[in-house]
Amino acid sequence: MKNLALKYNLLLIILCLSSSLLSQNEEDALRLSNLHFGGTARYISVGGAFGSLGADISVLSINPAGMARFKKSEFSFSPNVILSSSNSYFDSTSNSAISGKENLNVGSFGIVGVSKNKSENNSKWTSFQFGFSYNRLADFNEQFKLEGNGNYSMSHVFALRSNGIPTQDLIDYDPFYGELAYQTYITDFDSLSNNYQSIMNSQSIAHEQTTTRKGRVGEYSIAFSGNYNQKFYVGGSIGLPKVHFEEEKRHTETEIKDSSEFEHSFTFNEYQLTTGNGINGKIGIIFLPSNWLRFGIAYHTKTFYNLNDYWNTSMNSVISNNEQYSHNSIDGNYNYKLSTPSKLIASSSVIIAKKALISIDYTRIDHSSSILKPNTFFGSNYNFEAENSAIDSNYRITNNIQIGTEIKIGSFYMVRAGFSSFQNPFSFDTDASYNKNSFSAGLGYRNKKYFIDFGARYSTWKDNYYMYDSSIAPASRIDNTALNITVTCGFKW
């Protein structure tokens, strides 16, 4: 029993060490709560300020009361291209690497059916709508590269993780990190100190890390709405988000020594795949006190996810001219649950002479309220206490603003522009320069039977990124940009 308790405690230590390495942690929670919605070309063009406007398929994932603004049945489809780039600054120095990625996807599609109330009881419910849509809530496609020199090494993380574990037990208690480093001779056990030591002891070590991510959160929505006397519009929807996230990291280190010394080196590869499904609910109201003024409010419940992580690692090393080693980990697999924050959206818009509009949305999200839980159906009983404590202390409430305008030119053409600002969700760094800001513009053509819209959105934001354990490796800054180009085609009947 004593040995079993020791092994159990060692396992918990390994699970809690270094959240920057593969595990279910606060980063997973933020990834699925800090979403930046795609939607139709019209939605993008006006900066996403659509909470009180309606009559767009995007509203099923924003304010379902906006579906009640449809006067005719409608189908629309929106292909989307994203061009992203990153400029990475290693250890906050001038050493930088520029990376980019292109992605073609479906931003949204959907259908709304309108049923007009033809009853003879003088009901003020003039019409009802039923809708089904797909909206892309997040896009994870990006690539960035960091390179530069430092006097620290990821191998020291492997050595620290291995301490306290007999060499023959590394395969059981740290198969993804410590075991690989030991089998490739990057770390070795020192019987004098009774600790693991790294062979990467140069005063200067060249680092290079490339991170490639891909995937998305796409939400299928089923909604119902009603139009009361052309003044009140109410609606509700059930959202069924589907998650697919992949991340590959390739981390290489090489000692920098003089010509008389051998330069040890290693490459460490990580792969993670997260998949899962969720469910949430949304309710909303739009009120028109006059023909030129609109108010909207929507509430999104927490999203409850069932997620599965699959991961593996591998390592190659060069120890001497005649010694090269490689080792692959076992495959990891874990099922767990995640609930992400509820959301409150308040909005208003002004219609000017039936030829122009100005709209604004305010969104409040408490990112610290995400909760990770074990999936007991699969026998897990890990309590995620450390991870949930990190969520509570590292993240904060954000207040996000979206503003847009649309001007009608002639009978069929529209010109649009918008701006949005999403606050940095980190509580320990409230620097406004880390907010995600977007500028957008677009054009549209609409007649009584069909429409086509074009929209473009340019976004900029900064991230602090740690190659590995933040107690060893300092933060590097990543300047990100993304250009979304969307075309929406649809018809009415």
Describe what you observe in this structure.
By secondary structure, the protein is mainly beta. The protein has one domain (24-152, 192-492): Porin (Beta Barrel), CATH 2.40.160.60. The chain has helices at residues 2-16, 26-33, 41-45, 154-162, 170-173, 178-183, 385-394; strands spanning 74-89, 96-116, 125-139, 142-150, 187-190, 195-198, 205-228, 232-255, 265-290, 293-300, 303-320, 323-328, 332-340, 343-352, 356-366, 371-374, 397-409, 413-422, 436-446, 450-465, 476-492. The strands form two sheets. The protein has a 14-stranded antiparallel β-barrel with strand order 1-2-3-7-8-9-10-14-15-17-18-19-20-21. Strands 5-6 form a two-stranded antiparallel sheet. Strand 19 and strand 20 (450-465) form a beta hairpin. Helix 2 crosses helix 7. It is elongated and about 90 Å long. The termini are far apart. Residues 1-21 have low confidence and may be disordered.
Which percent band covers the strand fraction? Answer: over 45%
CATH fold-level topology: Porin
Characterize the largest beta sheet: strand count, sense, and whether it forms a barrel: 14 strands, antiparallel, barrel
Shape: elongated
Gyration radius from CA atoms, angstroms = 26 Å
State the low-pLDDT regions, or none. Answer: 1-21
The number of helical runs is: 7
Strand order of the largest sheet: 1-2-3-7-8-9-10-14-15-17-18-19-20-21
